[in-house]
Each structure stands twice: as C-alpha cells, then as structure tokens.
Amino acid sequence: MIYTVTFNPAIDYVVQTTDFKIGSVNRSISEQIYFGGKGINVSIVLSRLEISSIALGFTAGFTGRAIEKGVAEAGIKTDFVHLENDCSRINVKIKSDSETELNGQGPDIPDKAIEALFEKLDDLRDGDILVLAGSVPNSLPMDIYEKILARLSRKKINSVVDASGKLLLNVLKYKPFLIKPNADELSEMFGAAISGKDDVVKYGKKLKEMGAQNVLVSLAGDGAVLIDEYGTVHIQRACIGKIKNSVGAGDSMVAGFIAGYFIKKEYAYALKLGTAAGGATAFSDGLAEKEKIFALLSQL
Predict the structure, then answer these.
(1) Are strands 129-133 and 99-102 parallel, antiparallel or unpaired?
(2) Which residues contact 191 (CB under 8 A, 6 or more apart)?
(3) Could you tell me the pLDDT band of residue 91, with boundaries at 50, 70 and 90?
(4) What does each C-alpha distance from 194 to 179, 187, 191 come to in angstroms?
(5) Is residue 251 among the annotated active site residues?
(6) Which entry of 128, 162, 228, 251 is annotated as an active-site residue?
(7) pLDDT tens digit string along 194-216?
(8) Nearest to 57 by CA among 121, 1, 101, 14
C-alpha cells in the first residue's frame, strides 16, 4: 500500500482577476476551490492513475472537515489525526498578470497528536511506500521526517521524500527509495551555483553517495534528471505545452514516478510518466487528469 503524509493540509482558494491592484477593491472573474497539500496532491494524482493510497496527516476545525470530505470524495481513503483546536489553513492564490499567494499558517500540533500519527505509521508493512512531502509547520519539530524514518527503520519501507534543506539531508542516512529536489533546492543544499545538467548530475550523485537510492531532480521547463539506484543517469526533456498552473506540478511528478515504477518496475518509464504527470498539471487549471498525462506521455 502507498501512504502519503501531509502535515499541513489546506484549502486552496484560487481567484482569477484582471489587473490586480494592491490596496484596492478587486473583482474576481472566476474562482476555484481545491483540497490539497503536497502529500494529498500525490494521492489525488495516484488515484487518477488508478493506484490506491491512504492519505495521512492532521486536520482541524470546519476547514479540516471540508478537506477530509473533499479528499474522500476524490476516491481516496483517509486516516487523518483530528486536532482539537484551531482550523486547517486556507491558502489564497490570486492569478492576474502575475501570481500572488497568501498561505495560511495552519494549526498547532501537540505532542499527543504527533504520537497518534506515529501509531498509525506503525501499521505500515514491509514493501509499503511512504511519501513524506513538503515543509513542516512551526509547531512540529524540524527533525520530524528523521524521527518517522528512524521509527520505521526496522521495516522494509520504501520511503519517498520531497523536501528541501535539512529536512531532506537529515533523512539520507535512512536510504530513502526516492528523493526529489529541484535545481534551486539542490543549489541551496550544497551552497553552489547550478548551471546546466552536468552540475545537476554532479550534485545529484553526491546525494546518492549520502544515502538516497534514487535521486530525481526536477528542472521545470528543462525537464528532469534521474540518477537511479544502479548509478545510471537518465536525462528527460520536458513536455511541450502552455503553462497555466505552478501548483502541484512537482507533486504530480512524484505521483507519476511512483505509478510508473509500480506498473513496470522500470526507471526510464517511471521518469517519463513522472515528467508527463508534472507537465499535465502545469498545463491544466488543477491537478493532472489521466487522459492528459498519457497524451503528454506520447510526446516522450
């Protein structure tokens, strides 16, 4: 089974307007509501590729209930820890000549809620996949990813970590199955300027030497680079299309990669399906749909 963890789920309220002006009254021309967070996004795209997963994490208040209902209505099994206080966050995303985002902080997560999540994770079995994605809210310890993988280290869990900085670096000793930094995150981790795919391969290999089994580096319009568990370097160009959306493309790439490897056990195919899924989200108003993913896959 595949499990995704979203520590800080959100309602994304997306507003389209023309000529957005700060300090003025602006009128929307369209509005959409999405239920998300990086782990939830992975679960949604997996579901659209007809692969089941269980969404874990924390929800709170009336917004938390709305998130849980929306995710369940998308056909995804949920097992969230329900917090007693506060509300899950709302992120406002304004699309005009440029994109403006105002992301909520989210609820405080007490120690007993963290322990409740750990107990749910204890149910994972050998061979399961665990996706840890995104930043950690201020109320959680910054070593939470490390603590989770340490707790599960005696089991043969395939962990997937989509994070940056110390959150990512500190889990490498647990040999995650897949990590997915982007070029900026790679540059930040090593304090080096990344210019071109040769640099991406160089520093991606360093992450592999530090413990990661597979290193997938997303390069936006320049495609992606994968250094697989055998040390083989795969370079994949990006799909061709008109960019509409920057939210969830990386999560979609993770979902597509997992689905591709789940289906064929081939890294080259997993990279292609991941690239197509990321592109399908980037070229859509919301997360990728199956038909669009496979239409883009045919380009590759």
Answers:
(1) unpaired
(2) none
(3) very high
(4) 18, 6, 9
(5) yes
(6) 251
(7) 888 999 999 999 999 999 999 99
(8) 121
- Alpha-carbon distance 98 to 246, whole Å? 11
On whether the CB atoms of residues 8 and 86 are closer than 8 A, the answer is no
* The pLDDT value given to residue 123: 96
Question: pLDDT tens digit string along 108-121?
Answer: 999 999 999 999 99
pLDDT for 244: 86
Burial of 107 (0-12, 13-18, 19+ CB in 10 A): buried
How many angstroms separate the CA atoms of 217 and 204, rounded? 7
Partners of 130 in the beta sheet?
Answer: 3, 159
Q: What is the pLDDT of residue 7?
A: 93
